[in-house]
């Protein structure tokens, strides 16, 4: 049989001849078999193309009525992040907590107060980041083997046990060990929650469910600030343990919710578990007036997932961390990593140290904790506001605009650091509140949407992990220098720190303009094509691409790929599992 055989198919969606290329010399197909496989493959391609167009034009109302279960499951999994937001804010706020400082701190006669030594502030603040780096890489390997759900449940069980260490800590070294170990399961939360959110929802809901991860961070920070405000004036020497102990409340209910949730269908397709993938899709869909039967939609979604995964596999067969740095994937890895890095090096550390920052800026302890509560409440309002803003503006516009406004605010804060008096202290506190609102309206939430959209499907988990670890490495450096910037026993920059972060804001703004693409309104298949064609960042928005072109797909996946997909599609049967 000739190496290249051309057929003209009578398919309504195409009047062009298509060519099937033999990828190897082993095995032969009869003409009838090739005709049969090719015809079915063309149907799958047409199905996928139609579904991609429908997803692209699906409105918010239709998305809400078709995917309410997907929304619920995504919200449950993302709730893991509340725990991490709670604890990370807790520890940094403890540096301004009188009982904690007296228990673990050192008395400084010249200041007439207890302070946690700068070296220990640095060590404790970077401890979680060290654990998270290890946890992220481990989570990527484990999740590839057993899936997102089981990895997250195991992480929640681990958290429940490790809380005992920080709760019963008797000295700073014990607290340090507890924070490092807690960082390991937190690493799994950081990557798998946002990846799951992006994979179970359609394009119209993606920005809401991925940015909800940022809302979970803020909710955790807000809860910890409220609890700290409630116990800050307590005379009980063990009052600082109450906030630690409250962390035992949520692992079990969240784990139960995750156990009941369906696995990501994209992960199941990548793992070759096609029947489970289709049933997972069915569990994410709901019938309504315009969708009396979810089976046709589930079929089309499954066809699209198969084609996207097979096409990416043909372009880049590997799925290791190393493959994220190969020529075809490196641009996507770089953009995702620098996007997440920008979130961390543009002043957000001042929010994490806000209570301590306020006290060093001149506000009393009680008012500092009150300001922190207001700050995180504004952060939550900002995240919700980003959902409305995203309806009008694109991801890039929100991200870039947020960076520019943050730059201005940080410059003003830094200048006020040279001014003495209570008026300047109140102005600095007020500006930091505005900064928090702007950050959580723009850069904060939109980052989660961008880093989940930019990677390819097959390398998404690995790319998100690498990107988050770039964030965490920066977090370690920031954890080293921030206490020195703020601590009166060290550099004592106080509000002048704003000028330092304003410089990084300018650099990140310039980078974003030249390299961060606009992903709004683009399906995963369209993004694959745009990156494959090397379209420049500023042309992503205006460039239209053709997805699921039968001729291109056949040339990429070859004879065996076509056969595998057709047979996998034919072998799948739905279950009657109900949720």
Description:
This protein has 579 residues and is mainly alpha-helical. The protein has a domain at 58-261 and 316-516: Growth Hormone, Chain: A, CATH 1.20.1250.20. Helix content is 72%, strand content 2%. The strands form two sheets. It has a two-stranded antiparallel sheet with strand order 1-2. It has a two-stranded antiparallel sheet with strand order 3-4.
Short structural summary:
With 579 residues, this protein is mainly alpha-helical. It has helices at 31-57, 60-66, 68-78, 80-94, 98-104, 118-146, 148-167, 172-200, 203-231, 241-245, 251-260, 265-270, 274-284, 295-315, 327-344, 348-352, 354-361, 365-392, 395-416, 422-441, 443-453, 460-486, 497-515, 524-532, 550-571, and strands at residues 4-7, 18-21, 106-108, 113-115. 72% of the residues lie in helices and 2% in strands.
The amount of beta strand, in percent, is under 5%
Q: Give the beta-strand count.
A: 4
Q: Average pLDDT across residues?
A: 83
Cα(first) to Cα(last) distance is 51 Å
CATH superfamily of the domain at 58-261 and 316-516: MFS general substrate transporter like domains
Question: Which tags fit this structure?
Answer:
two-stranded antiparallel ribbon; Growth Hormone, Chain: A; 72% helix; mainly alpha; 579 residues; 2% strand; elongated; membrane; two-stranded antiparallel sheet; 25 helices; disordered N terminus
Fold topology:
Elements: E1 4-7, E2 18-21, H1 31-57, H2 60-66, H3 68-78, H4 80-94, H5 98-104, E3 106-108, E4 113-115, H6 118-146, H7 148-167, H8 172-200, H9 203-231, H10 241-245, H11 251-260, H12 265-270, H13 274-284, H14 295-315, H15 327-344, H16 348-352, H17 354-361, H18 365-392, H19 395-416, H20 422-441, H21 443-453, H22 460-486, H23 497-515, H24 524-532, H25 550-571
Antiparallel strand pairs: 1-2, 3-4
Helix pairs in contact: 1-14, 1-25, 3-8, 3-9, 4-9, 6-7, 6-8, 6-22, 7-8, 7-11, 8-9, 8-22, 9-18, 9-21, 13-14, 14-25, 15-21, 15-22, 15-23, 17-18, 18-20, 19-20, 19-21, 19-23, 20-21
